[in-house]
Specification:
The protein is mainly alpha-helical. It is built from two helices and two strands; from the N terminus they run αβαβ. Strands 1-2 form a two-stranded parallel sheet. The mean pLDDT is 94.
Length: 75
């Protein structure tokens, strides 16, 4: 899952959905490589990189959801 600025991707809700509706054994990747491209620079909520605080919160939400399999990208 790519973490987006301003939590547009809804990371916490996505992690909770996967853990509760699919399985906590599901493998997921938490990624921070989002960058503006094409016309995304014209969309205020997407016109910047993910901050370290936003990414740290997404990683925390991943861990709190009960998911444990996968890969967490270094920021």
């Amino acid at each position: 899952m790519i973490v987006l600025p301003n939590n547009i991707a809804g990371s916490k809700n996505t992690f909770e959905f996967v853990a509760n509706e699919i399985s906590t054994d599901t493998y997921m990747s938490v990624m921070a490589q989002y960058h503006t491209a094409n016309i995304s620079h014209t969309i205020e909520q997407l016109n910047r990189k993910v901050s370290s605080e936003e990414y740290d919160k997404a990683v925390e939400d991943f861990e709190k959801s009960g998911l444990y399999n996968g890969w967490i990208q270094e920021l």
